[in-house]
Amino acid sequence: SDHPEIQEEIYRKDDRLLTLLKDVYVESRDPPVQVKDGAGEHLPCKQEEKRLTKLGHLGDLDVKKVPKGKISIVEALTLLNNHKLHPQIWTAEKIAVEYSLELKEVNSLLEFFIPFAVQEFPKETKKAI
Taking CA 7 as the corner, what is the angle to CA 2 and CA 10, rounded to the nearest 5 degrees? Predict the structure, then answer.
């Protein structure tokens, strides 16, 4: 409202533009409707194969079932710790079989994820820290 010339420009008709718009023709059609034959309506959906998790004493903290080829958080921590403590027993091959995993994924997991050890200092050394 402070600039009436702007408002006038906004509402002014542009005869050249209106003439050009009259030459524009747009045709819009819906895609053809596909008829359902009913043959696939009652097919059961593919069930994802699951396995019970191996949780031990931490069972209350984690899920009970996971899809094959996957592991739960507690299982991941457990297998990483087992491998760290006993690498000659808990090899990548044994872990892959035990947890229904791909060997290359287990190798990547063991290479890139290393659990750290929490160390608690005796009370007398806390003051020195």
Answer: 155
Give the C-alpha separation, 71 to 79, whole Å.
10
The pLDDT tens digits of the residues spanning 45-74 come to: 556 676 666 666 555 666 677 778 888 888
Give helix 103-112 / helix 73-85 axis angle, nearest 10°.
70
The full DSSP string for 41-109 is TTPPPPPPPEEE---GGGGGGS-SEEETT---HHHHHHHHHHHHH-TTTS-HHHHHHHTT--HHHHHHH
Q: Name every residue whose Cβ is closer than 8 Å to that of residue 123 and which is 6 or more positions away in sequence.
A: none
* pTM across the whole model: 0.48
DSSP bridge pairs for 67: 50
Question: 66 forms bridges with which residues in the sheet?
Answer: 51
